[in-house]
TrEMBL record:
<dbReference type="InterPro" id="IPR023750">
    <property type="entry name" value="RbsD-like_sf"/>
</dbReference>
<dbReference type="GO" id="GO:0062193">
    <property type="term" value="F:D-ribose pyranase activity"/>
</dbReference>
<dbReference type="InterPro" id="IPR007721">
    <property type="entry name" value="RbsD_FucU"/>
</dbReference>
<dbReference type="GO" id="GO:0006004">
    <property type="term" value="P:fucose metabolic process"/>
</dbReference>
<dbReference type="Pfam" id="PF05025">
    <property type="entry name" value="RbsD_FucU"/>
</dbReference>
<dbReference type="GO" id="GO:0036373">
    <property type="term" value="F:L-fucose mutarotase activity"/>
</dbReference>
<keyword id="KW-0413">Isomerase</keyword>
<protein>
    <submittedName>
        <fullName>Fucose isomerase</fullName>
    </submittedName>
</protein>
<dbReference type="InterPro" id="IPR050443">
    <property type="entry name" value="RbsD/FucU_mutarotase"/>
</dbReference>
<dbReference type="GO" id="GO:0042806">
    <property type="term" value="F:fucose binding"/>
</dbReference>
Amino acid sequence: MLKGIPSILSPELLKVLCEMGHSDRLVISDGNFPAESMGKDSIVIRLDGHGVPEVLEAVLKVFPLDEYIDEPVSLMEVVPGDPVETPIWDTYEKIVLKYDKRGKEAIGHIERFSFYDQAKTAYTIIATGERALYANIMLQKGVVQPEEQ
């Protein structure tokens, strides 16, 4: 056990987050996301008993977002005509604001199949049991500033 590290971050996940470098991406996926087939060239970590918001909160406590791009956080766009509401996105905005001063401005949206294409190149995919639709989120890693060490 470690002090100050959220318990949801397993030793395996902490190792992977530490291995990641600047500009590497990770996906925190909902329960419907095809994590195993998208992650054939990635490290897939299963956290099926958890939801995306709690995983996002824990990850952002230790994971710097890329400050060199405008939108280091990406959400999968709702397919046009799909009658789905995405209230979980409001939760994400609140969590991101806690850890990045840009808040909502750090979040962009990617068309569904473009999101899949980018997910296939992610360093890691964290598969959750999240039941909300369009709850997938992709983060691009930044650098740890000297004053943060």
